[in-house]
Design brief:
The protein is built from four helices and nine strands, in the order αβαββββαββαββ. With 179 residues, it is α+β, with helices and mostly antiparallel strands. The strands form four sheets. The protein has a three-stranded antiparallel β-sheet with strand order 1-9-8. A hairpin with a 6-residue loop joins strand 8 and strand 9 (172-178).
């Protein structure tokens, strides 16, 4: 008996890429519609990532650092002044609190990054402008929003709901969602 389903893919790299994509979409959107066999494989992968995030979600230290932030005028442009004949941007020093990962959380972050694809959030209005889109930090989303929801739960973070056969080939379609 095999340890995994082949899912209609000829090579393991194709299968792995498909599962990574489905897991990324599941954790980003909180639910996906797919076939039953794919859902069962993605469930295995997603629950392992969520368990890893739960174990490490509070494993960090907070540090206060001094950061230089440029001063801005009413229009949002940087304020400049003249120093020794050159125009130089004026900076304010601000105390900023950052989260510094402990070694085990850093390892968990890197494991999560090795499985999930990078996600770019595009605005809903349909304009795919690079300046309006932003990159989503998926490990931070796992640690900060998903893991706290499941701290008191002992497994079973996903639910599979059957929604009927697909029209073309009658494959059993399911809704895979985070509980």
């Amino acid at each position: 008996m095999a340890d995994y389903r082949k899912l209609g893919r000829t090579s393991s790299s194709q299968r792995k890429a498909m599962l990574r994509s489905l897991a990324t979409n599941l954790l980003y959107h909180d639910k996906i519609v797919t076939t039953e066999a794919r859902a069962k494989e993605v469930r295995r992968l997603a629950e392992k990532l969520i368990t890893l995030a739960i174990k490490e979600h509070e494993n960090y230290t907070e540090e206060t650092i001094k950061a230089k932030i440029p001063q801005k005028d009413a229009k949002g442009n940087r304020v400049k002044k003249e120093v020794d004949g050159k125009r130089v941007t004026v900076f304010d020093e601000v105390d900023k609190t950052i989260k510094k990962d402990k070694p085990s959380r850093l390892i968990a972050r890197r494991k999560i990054l090795s499985v999930l694809y990078p996600v770019t959030d595009v605005p809903k209005d349909g304009r795919k402008k690079r300046s309006l889109s932003k990159k989503i930090d998926m490990p931070a989303r796992l640690f900060d929003t998903i893991a706290p929801r499941y701290t008191n739960r002992r497994g079973g973070y996903t639910r599979i709901v059957k929604i009927g056969p697909r029209k073309g080939d009658a494959a059993e379609m399911v809704l895979l969602e985070l509980v």
